[in-house]
Amino acid sequence: MRRAVLAAATLLFLAGCGGADNVPLATVPVISPAALLEPTADPSPDATRVPSPMAVSPQVHVQPTQVPTAVPTSVPTLRPAPVVRSAPRPVITRTPQPVATTPPAPVHAEPAKVVSDNWSGYVARGTFWQVGGSWTEPTATCTAASAESVFWVGLGGYPSYPLYQAGSGAFCRNGAPVHVLWYELLNPGATQPLVALVQINPGDHVSAAIDLHSGTVHLADDSSGYSRDVSFTPQSDTLGSAEWIAEATSHGGTVSTLADFGSVDFAGCSANLGAAGLAAWPATQLIELTLTDHSGGRAAPDDVSATPGGGGFTVNYLGS
What we know:
Elements: E1 8-9, E2 112-116, E3 119-128, E4 130-136, E5 148-156, E6 163-173, E7 176-186, E8 194-199, E9 205-211, E10 216-221, E11 226-231, E12 239-247, E13 250-251, E14 254-255, E15 263-271, E16 276-277, E17 286-292, E18 298-301, E19 313-319
Parallel strand pairs: 2-17
Antiparallel strand pairs: 1-8, 3-12, 3-17, 4-9, 4-15, 5-6, 5-12, 6-7, 7-8, 9-10, 10-11, 13-14, 15-16, 15-19, 17-18, 18-19
């Protein structure tokens, strides 16, 4: 993010068959018939053919030899030897010993944990068109002459533009913090500078919301009664992430030193006008961000709790 207190500034944010073969016939020898004898005249129907005595060979009658029929002697019938069976062995049924098993402990889904050089808080992934949240502006201690700590809700930006943000924060100049309400609209190729709206005080209750359907940024200091709605033209009517973040801002791509803000309590963290509360959002679609800046400043969120209005959590400054 880029910053100019109570003025416009510019920031590039990280935010798969054949048939059978024919078999040739075997060569069949051709047998010529023997020469036929001259046939005789057919006998008349009542004629008796008498063969010539020379044409008939004398018949020799051979008396067959009598083969005595052998009378078989008595053949004993062979019986198979008896099968000796041993006594059956008893079948022993063994009852298996019960195996003691410990059911696996249920796996508790947790958000993905990511270390960032400028964000700390939670990112919800899904389809979002509105986001909102509130917090009490913490007292900031400047850890460097130009240290900064800001707190905001946003849509988009994880991991790329567009990113629409609205919130508050402390900007240290010459070691003195100035607290303001601000918003920033980051579109690819058409980034608008950060706009500071009004100076506020530590301890003030701040609320912020962004609505893509109405094209509105809402910021309010409920303690002082200040409220402002800013119209803008979003590039899309839905975005893929919603954020509730404490941040060390960046200038020209260089992350600033994180100012010591102690802790900040986000509440009423919801999206899509309450239809997507942070506490009820699937943990597998959440990203928990821990901040470690280039100067060693650190901040980390605690677990999300089911506070009214969608859920909440605390981001703690952890020092350097």
